[in-house]
Amino acid sequence: MVKEGKRLGYRIIAAEGLNEATVIEGVKMLGKIVFELSGIEEARRLLAGSKKSGVLVSAVPLTVETARWIAHDRRVDTIVMTSRNISIFDKKQASVMKYYGKPLEVTFTEISKSGEEIVGQFARKLRLILGKNIPVIVSSGAREIVEYQHPMVVSSFLAKLLGLDLKTAMSLISLNPYKVVSKLGV
Amino acid sequence: MSEVEVYQALTLLSLVLSTVAIILVAIILLGSRGLLRHLRKSLLGKKAVKYRKRYLAVLYYPPGFFKTPGELEAALKECVRQSLGLIYLSGIDPRVVFINPKESRAIIRFNGEFKTELLASLAGASRLGFKIIPIGVAGSFKSARKKLS
Asked: Residue B117: helix, strand or coil by DSSP?
């Protein structure tokens, strides 16, 4: 996967299962932890001690109150929107995320592999979030090499889906993730 | 010749001269290409965009998945059709003009107007079990070959 990432032109890759930042074959590797949180108590318990140097913490809130709560938790770097929790991301959640400057993360494989109904929902929610000037990050979410797409393909797909220009679409996979990574101090 | 007739003749002459002047000014103004194009667009609508051939140099994965140009072209067309539909497929008109199965490289000719659409549709290839990695878009087959090497 690292070799493939390098071939596709990625310079920094965050992957689950790594506990610290390393450099493999010239590519900077970061760790990533994804928590599925169904309640505030569970969030408190799982997030305690989870913040480490060189490790990104992402949270998938499954309830509205968890989503509101983690929006202002500094241990959480990104809030992940999936097809399971898409209904949580409404105008109020967007306002909270904007207030605390919390970026939204979506996985590209989930968008590209879903049916037209889910893709439509993703497009509507992403337009709402982008309209509020909240940073959006599109991660690959790849588990196999076939799912790992070239940045040109991803940005073109997003540009067409969301009606963005190519530069803005590219910032969802380059500039916005870099801002989050640079906050980790790596 | 009475005084009235002289005035009538002079009026007629001035009319003719002013008409000639208007025509001359119009010819001078319309002579510039930009203005002509603008007038043509406003009167006749937007001119149909010319089909500009572009060449996309690509790598494909898994290695050696496609052996012939026909296999890759059929898979690519299916991918575009599933992602964007028949109208876009006919617009993009993707053709595989070169394939190297040993190195898993190929060159796809397409309608340059639909560059973003073609690239966007490549995301759907993973559903069909393969992946196309774009290397670059070139204006000629020769420069596309250079990008591949």
From this structure: helix
